Amino acid sequence: MGKLGSAFYNRLVIIIPYVWLLLFFMAPFFIVFRISLSTTAIAMPPYEPVFALADGWAEFWAKMRTFSFENYSYLLDDPLYLNAYISSVVIAGVSTFLTLLIAYPIAYGMAQAPRSIRPTLLMLVILPFWTSFLIRVYAWIAILKPEGLFNQLLLSVHAIDTPLIILNTNVAVYIGIVYSYLPFMVLPLYSSLEKMDGTLIEAAQDLGCTPITAFWRVTFPLSLPGVVAGCMLVFIPAVGEFVIPDLLGGSETLMIGKTLWNEFNSNRDWPVSSAVATILLLILVIPIVFFQNAQAKADEQGR
């Protein structure tokens, strides 16, 4: 019974994550995908066909035959959606790069700090999460607006003569994303750098490496898992970001999150908005799958 019980619990530990993914990822995804194959209707819900368990199998298959990919063809024909996808990827990519540039020195400094103050530094990184995300974004409006704190500071030191127009531009979006997602980059980097053996740097310097060369040949390669994890944690949500572009970006800031919201709420076109969401999900999931396969192969070769 002991071996059978142990085998049962081992399988249960493996099954639970798959059940979680099935209930909270695959099932909602298939619901959204089914709506994306429907057509718009003036009803509630605003699409057809609508399935009911009492319809029977014959009616079920009859409704299934009405599905079409016209919504996806519509997305390809309208350049608005392609431009929104491209703009979202570009903004998310630039924001992720800027976040990495800022977060790496912070994480490196935390990893090199005395162990007695590392918990305090870690708490300071996590501290913004104690405040509402929406309030923090609204705070940047007060900072970046023409009569805001940032322009008042520059005017007081005579760095500028007229207030800078930062709010309602892509620059404000970059600032908002970098600030909001900075902890997601710092924490994985700190986790990788904190575990690194310091004697490797000493050995590299004893062999003739300068501190900069030792960093690029030893420290940075060993921190790559944290870099990749942090970039994914920032890039993936930044692509579909809605609040920051809507509050800090202007009317010319085109991101797929705002486009999706307009289709879903303003136009009440649930099938098209579902098609937009499905393509966005595929854009994010496919690279992750390829990366995980490449990482698994690299691990096997390393063994």
TrEMBL record:
Family: Belongs to the binding-protein-dependent transport system permease family. CysTW subfamily.
Species in which this protein is naturally found: Rhizobium altiplani
Localisation per UniProt entry: Cell membrane
Keywords: Cell membrane, Membrane, Transmembrane, Transmembrane helix, Transport
PANTHER family xrefs: INNER MEMBRANE ABC TRANSPORTER PERMEASE PROTEIN YDCU-RELATED-RELATED, PUTRESCINE TRANSPORT SYSTEM PERMEASE PROTEIN POTH
A Pfam family reported for this protein in Swiss-Prot or TrEMBL: BPD_transp_1
Predominant location category: membrane
Protein's name according to its UniProt entry: Putrescine/spermidine ABC transporter permease
